Amino acid sequence: MTSPTSKKSSDLLVTLADAAAQLSAEHPFESFFRKGMEIEVELYAPVGMDRQTPHSRDELYIIATGTGTFSRGDEWVNFGPGDLLYVPAYTPHRFETFSDDFKTWVIFYGEKRERP
Fold first, then answer.
1. Is 20 helix (H, G, I), strand (E, B) or coil?
2. Separation CA 42–CA 19 (nearest Å)
3. How far apart are CA 42 and CA 47, in angstroms?
4. What is the largest CA-CA distance in the chain?
5. Among the CATH numbers 2.60.120.10, 1.20.120.530, 2.10.260.10, 1.10.1040.10, which is that of 32-109?
6. Which of 57, 85, 93, 100 has the highest CB neighbour count under 10 A?
7. pLDDT tens digit string along 49-90?
8. Which residues contact 45 (CB under 8 A, 6 or more apart)?
9. pTM of the shown model
């Protein structure tokens, strides 16, 4: 019998440190897990400004590090490590302000939707 820590598959564990090491100011996100169109997990760490536009799938953000403010439509909230944010497909949203250490896991799920 092998010990529980002796072997891991590449889709079993992605550490925040390993994922963050693959990001840069020019490439602020990277996909680390994908299962067809059912689910995709990325790490996102914008620098200076969040330039994202609405997406065709529902998404969840799980804040890994940092603090700031987030807008979804006309709603604004403060966020910090461990917080979960939900955005329906095609809803305008962005991280309006964020600390220099900001990183968030992004989970896209469900089928791509047609624009309403």
1. helix
2. 9
3. 16
4. 55
5. 2.60.120.10
6. 93
7. 999 999 999 999 999 999 999 999 999 999 999 999 999 999
8. 20, 23, 28, 29, 102, 103, 104
9. 0.84
